[in-house]
Amino acid sequence: MAVAAELTHARSYSRSLERGLAILSAFRSNRPLLGVSELAEEVGLNRSTTHRYISTLATLGYLQQDAATRKYRLGPRVLDLGFSAINSMELREISVPHLQQLSDETGHTVNMAVLDGVDIVYIERCRSSRQGQREIDLNLHVGSRLPAYCTSMGKVLLAFLPDDEQRAVLDEVQFAQRGPNTLTERGSLLAELERVRTAGLAVNNEELAYGLRSIAAPVRSQSGETLAAINIAVHRSMVSLEDLVARLVPPLKRTAAEISARIGHRP
């Protein structure tokens, strides 16, 4: 029976599809443009075979060729799939009214993100029209990706990973100075993640970009797993770090708890 099941699986498994998806997965936020040779090395295929897959993906709109460099980037069809997945997420649908209420109550932009490898992916964003808020927008939108290690939501999502998963993700992190206070050493980040885990809250003080501060809290599933994180983002000119924590942590944690309760979490 086991042999028969393996044969059935082998017959239904598409190696070509696997290779095509491997090519798409090779693109990262820090590597948005890749050439044929780079992709061939990444997916372990020869150059001609890789070029054939790339040509097919480009024809279908999943890749686009950059005219100047002749390298490739992800195409609009990939974005369509990503937005479709995000829009179909029950978590997002449940969270939107709570996030909007938090933004209206505080007067600040509120975000929700999930972890994908070493990055966070924004799945909801409730922008504030408050003066000065545009200075921290950073052209972010639903579907945007940022490095997890230097964002408040990323630190929350990393902090609550099981130890083995956390180690595996941190092994892939490429540390770089993004803001004045970026943590660029693994040991410093691990100590910070332990503080986040203890407090149930992450504070980001200009680690991602100059002037940007934020606080984040976890959204938990029925089993207690951290599914997502939400944050309040402010510019340093709007509020001091002390006031950010003292005044905005209570409504942030309340909102995270309300969303968690809606999806079945019981403390």
Describe this structure as you would to a colleague.
- The chain is α+β, with helices and mostly antiparallel strands and 267 residues long.
- The strands form two sheets. The chain has a six-stranded antiparallel beta sheet with strand order 5-4-3-8-7-6, sandwiched between helices.
- The protein contains ten helices and eight strands.
Which sequence of SSEs, written as H and E, runs from N to C? HHHHEEHHEEEHHHEEEH
Main sheet characteristics: 6 strands, antiparallel
N- to C-terminal distance:
44 Å
Poorly predicted regions: 1-7
Shape: globular
Q: Characteristics of this structure?
A:
267 residues; two-stranded antiparallel sheet; alpha+beta; 18% strand; six-stranded antiparallel β-sheet
Task: Tell me the layout of helices and strands.
Layout: H1 2-12, H2 15-25, H3 36-43, H4 47-59, E1 63-65, E2 72-74, H5 76-87, H6 90-106, E3 109-116, E4 119-126, E5 145-147, H7 152-159, H8 163-172, H9 186-199, E6 202-205, E7 212-220, E8 226-235, H10 241-262
Antiparallel strand pairs: 1-2, 3-4, 3-8, 4-5, 6-7, 7-8
Helix pairs in contact: 2-4, 3-4, 6-10, 7-9
Précis, in short:
This protein is α+β, with helices and mostly antiparallel strands. It has helices at 2-12, 15-25, 36-43, 47-59, 76-87, 90-106, 152-159, 163-172, 186-199, 241-262; strands at residues 63-65, 72-74, 109-116, 119-126, 145-147, 202-205, 212-220, 226-235. Strands 5-4-3-8-7-6 form a 6-stranded antiparallel sheet, sandwiched between helices. The protein has a two-stranded antiparallel sheet with strand order 1-2.
